[in-house]
Amino acid sequence: MINQFRKLNPVNLILLLAYTFVMRIVIFYETPAHLNFDFLEPFARLLISIDLENAFSASANIFFAAILVFIQALIFNRIINNHNLLTKPSFLPALMYITGASLFLPFMILTPALVCNFFLIWIIDKFLKLSKSPNAITTVFDIGMIIAIGTLIYFPFMAMLLMIFLSLLLFRSFNWREWVAGLIGFLTVFFFLAVFYYWKDNLNSFYQIWKPLGNKFPSVFKINYNDYLVLIPVAVIIILASLQLRENFFRSFISTRKGFQMLFFMFLVSAVCFYLKPNFRIWHFLLCVPPGAVLLAYYFSNAKKRWFYETLFLLFVVSVQYFLFV
């Protein structure tokens, strides 16, 4: 299967679509009676009146979530290939993205984090373009606005502001205008939101938006480890990929090295920003899928022993399905 997706064959588009639904067969088999879809954060609903909470039946919710994942996988695949992060263009990034987005049942429904992955994939593309742009002020300003729009949908997405500064450190020499441009882009969106709150004579509620920023990072976690055994094969592949990346690190182009460093930091930021949402759900970690999928794709793109990497991927897929059903 891996060998098939190592090629840029149009047939792979059909196979990817089929694979998307096969990986989600468990939730179609055991469709919940009702699923809510909170499209926007409560503070943004005054500005944009869209009520999608009960707009879809449970089956439609799951179906559209699968379609969104498939579309995101194709966009993500094109971006990774365009920036030459792997040894050669392939459909492996899309394959790994779809697999990562099928790890847990909460990943398979419409959620704010799933919608925000469109914005995350978009800013990955813009971050990777920073080193190629003679003047990055406009690009960084756009990134700030994209992050602000994503924050209206899912508040913890605000943590991606940190990625602006980390990416500028990686890809650009210091220019204070570029550092300020990202913040201005972000604040521009929230300035208009503040004006709207003021217009509605509800400015005190606007101040409440920022209360989660004062949350302390939790020191105690209640974890049912049996629910996360499926991450063992993921961890094995990531370790193998890290070893492979380390071996080839200094043979790669500088832009490729910096790209992987940026994605590593993005993975960490996406993982730890959950505390900004007091009642966060497991689907928050969908934000980790895009940067994580690149590392998984890197391993399968560079692995040499076919019998080993094909068997490893098969075991990965089987384990995902086993833990989903069990």
Mean pLDDT: 84
**What is the percent of helical residues?**
55-70%
| Total number of distinct structural domains | 1
Low-confidence parts = none
Q: From the structure provided, what is the oligomeric state, counting identical versus distinct chains?
A: single chain
- What structural class should be given to the helix and strand makeup? mainly alpha
- Listing every helix as H and every strand as E from the N terminus to the C terminus, the arrangement reads HHHHHHHHHHHHHH
User: Shape, please?
Assistant: globular
Question: What gap, in angstroms, lies between the N and C termini?
Answer: 25 Å
**What summary fits the major beta sheet?**
none
Task: Tell me the number of helical segments per DSSP (H or I, 4 or more residues long).
Answer: 14
| Strand segment tally | 0
Give the DSSP E fraction (strand runs of 2 or more residues). Answer: under 5%
> What value does the Rg take, in angstroms?
20 Å
Protein name: DUF6427 family protein
Pfam families: DUF6427
Keywords: Membrane, Transmembrane, Transmembrane helix
Organism: Pedobacter jamesrossensis
